[in-house]
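FIELD: query
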Amino acid sequence: MILGIESSCDESALALFDPEKGLVGEWIHSQISQHAEYGGIVPDIAVRQHLNQFFPLLDEMRKYNDINGTISEIAVTCGPGLIGSLGVGLSIAKTLGEIWRVPVVGVNHLRGHAYSPFMALGSHALPWTTILPHLGLLVSGGNTLLFEICTDRKINIIGRTMDDAVGEALDKGAKLLGFPYPGAAALEKCATDGNPKAFSFPRAFQSKGAHDFSFSGLKTSLLYQLQKMSQEEIVQCRQDLCSSYQEAAVDQLTKKCMRFLSQKDYKSFGLSGGVANNDVLRDRLKQTCVNQKVRFLAAEKKYTGDNAAMIAYVAHHDRNGLWSNHEGGLNFNPSLSLDEVPCTDRLI
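FIELD: result
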């Protein structure tokens, strides 16, 4: 079995993955309540929480499973993420590797997200010929990436946000509208009964040749709109404001994906990352894929956020994207890119 360890930001997570049976178990501690009063992630608090929670999680895992002699490899997130958080996970992985005498490999957190839509296809060999080439959209609080996985499994980044990630824009928009952190889910719920055309918010980079995304202008536009309104008007129009704001974000993402799906013969499309929880985005992209006759894959909602299951899963299926711990030399890289792979002499 592969033990996955995830600690890139504010989730402490473990997972056991059996290549034959699939996911055996997972254990996770979320820090949302510890960071909520600050309106965002506080790195020092995140590190302390990781240090406090990982050992109880390990105890829970050992009570649930007889892991003696069954773990053959430890896969740990080595980037990108918060420096201190990554360091905690890596230190634990190396220590366990020494104790259990099993190899430790580093996993690119973003590649975990990129592969998470494939998890529903099962644990055995993936049907590469039916899903590649693949167009993927990774949307979260820290990333907005449009990428492709080619038939040789190489990942190419097609477009990325030039400023705020879409998840950050949704959370900040929610905060402006009076919702507590993290507010994207509350904004989506409020938007359900609103009119998405009630307010006009900008969609950036809509020209035919534009590959990238931008959401800072959307957030600023909402701020200016709210400054024109009284508090009473904001309360009365909150549903319409939420719906229109969400529509602008979803529309920018969907139109960009639609354009690239029509330009190349992709066999599948995958949606991943925390914002993949948004039902409006999921439904819109699913319909886009139906129209383009492309297979739609989306990460299960329980795997859209940071989790160790995807780390263990991608360690099994993406061997050329792993970093070796040869002679204990594995280190973390807080700015690791989705398309970055180890040098040839560091491949597993």
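FIELD: remark
Residues 344-348 have pLDDT under 50 and may be disordered.
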